Amino acid sequence: MKKILLPLICICMLTACSEESKRQETRAEALRDSLMQVINQKDAELNDIMGTFNDIQEGFREINLAQGRVNLNGPGSEKMAKENIMENISFIQRTMQLNRERIVRLQQQLKTSTINADKLQTAINELKRQMEEKEQQIQALESKLKEKDVKIEEQDRQISDLNTNVASLTAANEQKTQTVNRQDRQLHEAWYVFGTKKELKEQGIVKSSQVLKNSDFNKDYFTKIDTRVVKSIKLYSKSASLLTSHPAGSYSLETDVQKQYTLYIHNPEKFWSVSKYLVIQVK
Question: Is 31 part of any domain?
Answer without folding.
Answer: no
